TrEMBL record:
<feature type="transmembrane region" description="Helical">
    <location>
        <begin position="207"/>
        <end position="227"/>
    </location>
</feature>
<keyword id="KW-0458">Lysosome</keyword>
<dbReference type="GO" id="GO:0046872">
    <property type="term" value="F:metal ion binding"/>
</dbReference>
<feature type="transmembrane region" description="Helical">
    <location>
        <begin position="168"/>
        <end position="195"/>
    </location>
</feature>
<dbReference type="GO" id="GO:0005765">
    <property type="term" value="C:lysosomal membrane"/>
</dbReference>
<dbReference type="Pfam" id="PF03188">
    <property type="entry name" value="Cytochrom_B561"/>
</dbReference>
<keyword id="KW-0967">Endosome</keyword>
<comment type="function">
    <text>Transmembrane reductase that uses ascorbate as an electron donor in the cytoplasm and transfers electrons across membranes to reduce iron cations Fe(3+) into Fe(2+) in the lumen of the late endosome and lysosome. Reduced iron can then be extruded from the late endosome and lysosome to the cytoplasm by divalent metal-specific transporters. It is therefore most probably involved in endosomal and lysosomal cellular iron homeostasis.</text>
</comment>
<feature type="transmembrane region" description="Helical">
    <location>
        <begin position="133"/>
        <end position="156"/>
    </location>
</feature>
<keyword id="KW-0479">Metal-binding</keyword>
<keyword id="KW-0813">Transport</keyword>
<protein>
    <recommendedName>
        <fullName>Lysosomal membrane ascorbate-dependent ferrireductase CYB561A3</fullName>
        <ecNumber>7.2.1.3</ecNumber>
    </recommendedName>
</protein>
<keyword id="KW-0408">Iron</keyword>
<keyword id="KW-0472">Membrane</keyword>
<feature type="transmembrane region" description="Helical">
    <location>
        <begin position="56"/>
        <end position="81"/>
    </location>
</feature>
<keyword id="KW-0325">Glycoprotein</keyword>
<feature type="region of interest" description="Disordered">
    <location>
        <begin position="23"/>
        <end position="50"/>
    </location>
</feature>
Length: 299
């Protein structure tokens, strides 16, 4: 279905080329080798041109995605460290400061990177199992970062006798984290463990894809509402500080963080929903698409 891979594959680092070579060798001993995506016979010049444009568009989008993600983490760190006094784990505002950094990094940036992993052309034509595992590990890292981020805000609230789970932000945020935990557990059991029936995997895959995008949307909504809430809390205009309505530099920075988070989410969703950029489908005989030790023809 997609044939943009070879340009990117040819420039893949040695490690990945080795993986590709070894999986090709394995295939040649046990089952007929399938043609590498893009190396199928007889593409005309028009096809080649449109494929190259497709690969360029995908690579540019992934680069933008990488840059915006790093910018999100950087802006969140600068906000907490430069404007809010830095980090600590002592029940004070310094402990709270971990919350925006870890939630943004985990539930938006690492989550977004893990979501677009299968779209990286370098991963095509290689064992999908490796990338499935990396996808699952990155998602687990995202989940753990967000759990620590939640611990920071709950501990800060409890030590300062602030009520829990009263705001719309906290409701939306909690829904995002709970759905993410359910999604990770279901994805792990169905796509990585060997005993899940193929029919279940096939049936669950569209739900997994839809829920994945929805969780990203919820996380972004939680970040935007959290940033706004925090700015209203701290920029009240007393104690010689400027009110939010004067747009002091802290507000400029935090508003910009919100915009960059939204832009990152839009680029991730654009990459995910562009059908031309999906990983080329496996051939039925391709063992690379099997879960841990079971053959798989789909997902
Ligand atoms: C995906 C991202 C986020 C999620 C899932 C999330 C989740 C939560 C949850 C569940 C609480 C309630 C804690 C409690 O009741 O003790 C909370 C509190 C809070 N969060 Fe976030 N948060 C996220 C991002 C952010 C960001 C980026 C900020 C920006 C500063 C932020 C600011 C706050 C503030 C000010 C509170 C305390 C007030 C309240 O409970 O609403 N959050 N967050």
């Amino acid at each position: 279905m997609h044939q943009e891979a070879p340009a990117a594959l040819s420039s893949a680092p040695l490690l990945f080329q080795l993986i590709q070579t070894s999986s090709g060798t394995e295939a040649s001993t046990s089952r007929p080798a399938r043609p590498k995506p893009g190396l199928r016979p007889g593409p005309n010049i028009k096809d080649t041109g449109s494929r190259m444009r497709g690969t360029l568009g995908l690579s540019l989008s992934l680069l933008v995605c990488l840059t915006l993600g790093l910018l999100c983490v950087g802006l969140a760190c600068v906000w907490s460290s430069r404007f809010r006094g830095g980090f600590g784990w002592d029940g004070s505002g310094l402990e709270f400061n971990w919350h925006p950094v870890l939630m943004t990094t985990g539930l938006v940036v690492v989550y977004g990177y893990a979501s677009v992993l299968y779209r990286v052309p370098m991963t095509w034509g290689q064992s999908k199992l490796l990338w499935k595992l990396l996808h699952a590990v990155l998602m687990l890292v995202a989940l753990l970062l967000s759990v620590v981020g939640l611990c920071a805000v709950f501990d800060f609230h409890n030590k300062n006798h602030i009520p829990n789970i009263y705001s719309l932000h906290s409701w939306v945020g909690l829904c995002a984290v709970l759905l993410f935990a359910v999604q990770w557990g279901a994805g792990f059991s169905l796509f990585l463990l060997p005993w899940s029936p193929l029919s279940w995997r096939k049936a669950f895959k569209p739900v997994h894809v839809w829920l994945g995008g929805s969780i990203l949307g919820l996380s972004i909504a939680a970040c935007i509402s959290g940033i706004n809430e925090k700015l209203f809390f701290v920029l009240k205009g007393g104690n010689h500080s400027q009110p939010y309505s004067d747009l002091p530099s802290e507000a400029m920075l935090a508003n910009s963080l919100g915009i960059v988070i939204v832009a990152f989410g839009l680029v991730v969703l654009y990459v995910l929903t562009n059908k031309r950029w999906q990983r080329p489908e496996a051939q039925p005989q391709d063992g690379a698409y099997a879960p841990l030790n079971q053959e798989e023809t789909d997902s």
